[in-house]
Design brief:
This is STAS domain-containing protein. It comes from Arthrobacter mangrovi. The protein is α/β, with parallel strands linked by helices. The protein has helices at 32-43, 62-74, 96-109, and strands at residues 7-12, 18-27, 50-60, 76-77, 86-87, 89-93. The strands form two sheets. Strands 1-2-3-6 form a four-stranded mixed β-sheet. The protein has a two-stranded antiparallel sheet with strand order 4-5. It starts with 6 loop residues before the first strand and ends with a helix.
C-alpha cells in the first residue's frame, strides 16, 4: 500500500447536519493521522455535526481500520489529531476492499 497518495473530499450538507469525508487511496497507520486531522477540522465547523468517514473508494490496512472503528465506537478523535481527545459524532463506511479481504481471510481460517 505504500506509495499511493491519500486523497479526501469533504462535503457538508446544506443544513450543516453532516460532513462527509470521502477517502480515496490507501489508508495505513502512518497516514490515518491525516484523516483524524481532517475530521477534527470538520468537527469544528458546527457543534453536533455528524461526521461520516467514507472509505468506500479506499483500501485500508487492518490496523488502520481498527483505529478508525475504535474512534467511531467511542465517538472520539484521538489526541494525535490535536491537543487533546475530542468528542465527535463519527460514523464509518468501511472499504469494500478491506471488508472483502477480511471475509476471505476468515473463510481461509475456517
Amino acid at each position: 500500500m505504500e506509495g499511493d497518495k491519500l486523497s479526501v473530499v469533504v462535503s457538508v450538507d446544506v443544513e450543516c447536519n453532516t460532513a462527509r469525508i470521502k477517502v480515496m487511496g490507501d489508508v495505513d497507520t502512518r497516514n490515518v493521522r491525516a484523516l483524524y486531522s481532517v475530521a477534527r477540522r470538520a468537527n469544528a465547523l458546527s457543534p453536533g455535526l455528524g461526521i461520516v468517514l467514507d472509505l468506500g473508494r479506499a483500501s485500508a490496512t487492518a490496523d488502520a481500520l481498527a483505529e478508525l472503528e475504535h474512534c467511531a465506537a467511542f465517538q472520539v478523535l484521538p489526541q494525535d489529531a490535536g491537543s487533546a481527545d475530542t468528542a465527535c459524532s463519527l460514523s464509518l463506511i468501511p472499504s469494500a476492499r478491506t471488508a472483502a479481504t477480511a471475509v476471505s481471510q476468515v473463510a481461509l481460517a475456517a
